[in-house]
């Protein structure tokens, strides 16, 4: 709830007495009347120069208390100062001269809006110059990853911070925007014996008045969103990253986690070291901060790049060498992503949120690039383009935004953290790197970093560095055409025999009207070993390419565009899909699917491509084989006969692998196997299980039963999802209750979320009703209860039950969902609906409730996707069903 509150913590805080705010306070309207209140970017009227934060942080309580001092430079005399603070019960505000002196000015605190814009009013003008603001306050912990949050793990409470994007203001009063980058001196007071973590090294830990007082060295300059404050009975594993050519001294390194994970920190500790070294080599400079802590939380949905104190979901860091290949890939990609941020985002920070793509797009590309160098055998690098092609399904919509999005108000900030920034932005970075060449690209990155070290920068600064390195001024305009415009370019190819015409337009699905948009598209095409590139800035152009064999219009798959071919060219390229490298296979799959959804390519071409891709030896390519048809299946395109034919056909595509590779569900049965073989086996098992193969289902159900009976070696975690789905299909509500009880008794970072996810996605109406009524078990966390209910909505066979629950509980569902991971995702669970009438119904139900929130854009995207799917279904479902029935 976004309500003001008072937390009765004063008796237990370090503050012996805190003066209350005076009774004769001006009304809020009087404070607002002093001047317009900034709802987005703060002015430079008051600029912070340093913070001293002292927080009493007992995660077992409902709330925290704190004192913060902020040194500011006041540009001119003023009766007020604008800054940020959200849902803090402000006990006192005092201004004094920064250099000492007897003057004191007592201020009155006013939170102006729900986003946390605040104003301090004073009875007279403060003098211009250097001042110190002193605050005393209390606040509440959140149950989700925003602000200061806490959760019970086993019998103990732990607390963490997650301040990106605008949640530092919920933990302490601040100038909470990235342009204000200053040192922070942090003190964290915990119950005796607990561990505390912040950005800088801890310099002392003493017992004072019953509190363990952890004092940290001043940080290097940081924006508020990168500050870290963690407390609890953590366990740690310590080592150092050995010296490198860029760094003469060892770098202190720790893994910090909750007690149940104590035995599984070694993998993350040892494998973080080479990733740090690879990044230092790429950037040509040492790790920017004096130590590196990597912390985990069971309720963190992703990861966060706090300077020197990264925070991760448990499942990202807590693993061992026997973990599933998919989990090792996730570790490599995410750790490389977050550690790349230590330079690109932390060392050099965007000046305002409209340039946050500079952080996330580059780090997303680096996560795959450096992750791939860390473990080439895992083929992590190809995933960068998979994420980019996935982003195109969002970028094609009319309801959208460019990568570089103007942000005027605070409620627009979180919309910048979506698949456009990560997927599209990362793909555009890969496209530019591929076009200019890796050496010139890295030279541009290093020049950009060197020019803005420990400061802030803008997109224009980055573009200038890239153009200079590439020695091509056209590159700036080309890059801006992708970052400053939304939409996916469509390159339509005509001609043949090495002489082609190419034309660009904006891709539009069936029923949508394309806008007249022009890009500077780096088009690279290939025939056999012959490759050529051009920068297409005009509407059309000629393209000459020697060689033989079918034309691949997106050579290497690095281009952020789709292509359209004449029918015969499609057929020739599809016929060789089993030989394409992963990125090109993904580009082909995406473009053919897009052609079908635009009303051009036939369902038979989708089927032919799937059959060829299934035979591709690369796991990324083979994994995308049925993506197009699977989306139609989930959307309810198929009649009963076509659905049965589809499931049988899809299982048939992987049965050869299933039979050739064999299957033993036991833990470690395939330890040491080739990663590609391992992933093909997992895909084959999942595909055959989806068709309810009786023998496989019996094996899977028995393995889950044995696992739940205490024989944990009976089921390898790599098969948790597939096996639990089979188990629930066989055992229904009784099995769901048994599985839930086992999950909630466990703190295993793989088993617990996998089991709860399987229950939520079971597709069993009885299980869905039990979930929606609310599982009454004190061990189930607030975030898990919500995730279970939204999983019901995501699942086709229970979607309508979940939707009805959402309609009846809309106010509670929306209220209080703060933080970057929360409210914005709620409308997204409705995207698999496929009906024009349902799109209209969703619009009527949700628009009024989500207007002016970070979820508003995601809602409009959802409405458009549901409507587009309905239009496509009305036009093409009959031919899709006929094509699938013919497979029998």
UniProtKB/TrEMBL annotation:
Cofactor details (free text): Binds 1 zinc ion per subunit.
GO terms classed as biological process: peptide catabolic process; proteolysis
Enzyme class: hydrolase
Keywords in alphabetical order: Aminopeptidase, Hydrolase, Metal-binding, Metalloprotease, Protease, Signal, Zinc
Site feature Transition state stabilizer, where: 422
Peptidase M1 membrane alanine aminopeptidase domain span: 267-481
Protein family: Belongs to the peptidase M1 family.
UniProt protein name: Aminopeptidase
Lineage, highest ranks first: Bacteria, Pseudomonadati, Pseudomonadota, Alphaproteobacteria, Sphingomonadales
């Amino acid at each position: 709830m976004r309500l003001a509150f008072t937390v009765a913590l004063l008796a237990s805080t370090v503050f012996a007495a805190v003066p209350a705010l005076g009774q004769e306070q001006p009304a809020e309207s009087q404070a607002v009347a002093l001047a317009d209140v900034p709802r987005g970017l703060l002015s430079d009227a008051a600029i912070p120069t340093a913070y001293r934060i002292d927080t009493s942080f007992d995660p077992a309580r409902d709330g925290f208390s704190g004192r913060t001092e902020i040194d500011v430079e006041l540009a001119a005399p003023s009766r007020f100062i604008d800054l940020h603070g959200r849902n803090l019960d402000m006990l006192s505000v005092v201004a004094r001269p920064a250099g000492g002196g007897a003057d004191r000015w007592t201020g009155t605190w006013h939170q102006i809006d729900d986003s946390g814009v605040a104003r301090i009013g004073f009875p007279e003008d403060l003098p211009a110059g250097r001042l110190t603001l002193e605050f005393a306050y209390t606040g509440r912990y959140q149950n989700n990853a925003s602000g200061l949050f806490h959760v019970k793990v086993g019998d103990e409470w732990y607390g963490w911070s997650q301040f990106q994007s605008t949640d530092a203001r919920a933990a302490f009063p601040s100038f909470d925007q990235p342009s204000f980058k200053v040192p922070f001196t942090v003190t964290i007071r915990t119950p005796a014996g607990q561990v505390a973590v912040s950005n800088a090294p801890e310099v002392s830990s003493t017992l004072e008045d019953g509190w363990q007082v952890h004092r940290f060295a001043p940080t290097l300059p940081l924006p508020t969103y990168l500050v870290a404050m963690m407390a609890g009975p953590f366990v740690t594993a310590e080592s150092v990253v050995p010296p490198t050519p860029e760094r003469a001294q060892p770098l202190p390194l720790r893994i910090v986690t909750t007690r149940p994970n104590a035995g599984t920190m070694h993998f993350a500790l040892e494998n973080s070291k080479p990733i740090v070294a690879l990044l230092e080599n790429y950037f040509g400079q040492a790790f920017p901060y004096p130590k590196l802590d990597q912390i985990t939380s069971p309720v963190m949905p992703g990861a966060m790049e706090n300077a020197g104190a990264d925070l991760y979901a448990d499942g990202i860091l807590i693993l061992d060498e026997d973990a599933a290949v998919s989990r090792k890939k996730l570790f490599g990609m995410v750790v490389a992503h977050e550690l790349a941020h230590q330079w690109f985002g932390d060392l050099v920070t965007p000046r305002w949120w409209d340039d946050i793509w500079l952080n996330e797009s580059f780090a997303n590309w680096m996560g795959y690039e450096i992750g791939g160098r860390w473990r080439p055998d895992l083929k992590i690098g190809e995933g960068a383009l998979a994420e980019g092609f996935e982003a195109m399904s969002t970028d094609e919509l009319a309801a959208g935004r460019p990568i570089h999005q103007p942000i005027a108000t605070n409620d627009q900030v979180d919309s910048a953290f979506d698949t456009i920034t990560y997927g599209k932005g990362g793909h555009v970075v890969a496209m530019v790197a591929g076009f200019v060449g890796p050496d010139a690209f890295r030279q541009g990155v290093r020049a950009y970093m060197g020019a803005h070290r420990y400061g802030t920068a803008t997109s224009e600064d980055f573009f200038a560095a890239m153009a200079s390195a590439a020695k091509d001024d056209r590159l700036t305009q080309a890059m801006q055409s992708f970052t400053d415009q939304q939409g996916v370019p469509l390159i339509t190819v005509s001609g043949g025999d090495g002489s082609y015409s190419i034309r660009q337009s904006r891709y539009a699905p069936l029923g949508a009207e394309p806008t007249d948009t022009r890009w500077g598209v780096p088009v690279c095409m290939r025939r056999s070993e012959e490759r050529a590139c051009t920068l297409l800035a005009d509407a059309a152009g000629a393209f000459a390419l020697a060689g033989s064999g079918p034309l691949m219009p997106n050579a290497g798959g690095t281009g952020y565009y789709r292509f359209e071919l004449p029918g015969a060219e499609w057929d020739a390229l599809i016929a060789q899909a089993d030989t394409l490298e992963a990125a090109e296979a993904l580009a082909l799959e995406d473009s053919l699917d897009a052609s079908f959804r635009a009303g051009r390519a036939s369902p038979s071409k989708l089927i032919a491509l799937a059959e060829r891709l299934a035979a591709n030896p690369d796991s990324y390519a083979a994994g995308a084989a049925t993506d197009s048809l699977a989306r139609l299946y989930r959307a309810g395109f198929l009649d009963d006969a076509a659905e049965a034919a589809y499931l049988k056909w899809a299982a048939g595509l992987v049965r050869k692998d299933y039979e050739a590779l064999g299957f033993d569900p036991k833990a470690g049965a395939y330890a040491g196997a080739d990663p590609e073989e391992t992933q093909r086996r997992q895909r084959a098992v999942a595909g055959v299980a989806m068709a309810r193969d009786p023998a496989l289902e019996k094996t899977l159900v028995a393995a889950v039963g044995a696992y739940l009976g205490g024989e944990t070696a009976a089921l390898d975690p790599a098969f948790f999802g597939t096996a639990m789905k089979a188990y629930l299909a066989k055992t229904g509500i009784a099995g769901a209750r048994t599985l839930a009880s086992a999950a909630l008794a466990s703190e295993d970072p793989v088993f617990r979320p996998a089991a709860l996810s399987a229950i939520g996605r079971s597709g069993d109406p009885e299980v869905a009703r039990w979930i929606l009524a609310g599982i009454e078990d004190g061990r189930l966390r607030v975030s898990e209860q919500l995730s279970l209910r939204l999983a019901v909505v995501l699942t086709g066979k229970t979607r309508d039950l979940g939707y009805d629950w959402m309609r009846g509980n809309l106010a509670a569902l929306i209220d209080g969902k703060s933080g970057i991971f929360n409210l914005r995702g709620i409308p997204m669970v409705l995207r698999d609906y496929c009906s024009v009438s349902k799109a209209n119904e969703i619009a009527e139900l949700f628009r009024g409730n989500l207007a002016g929130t970070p979820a508003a854009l995601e809602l409009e995207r959802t409405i458009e996707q549901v409507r587009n799917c309905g239009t496509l279904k009305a036009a093409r479902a009959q031919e899709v069903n006929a094509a699938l029935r013919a497979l029998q």
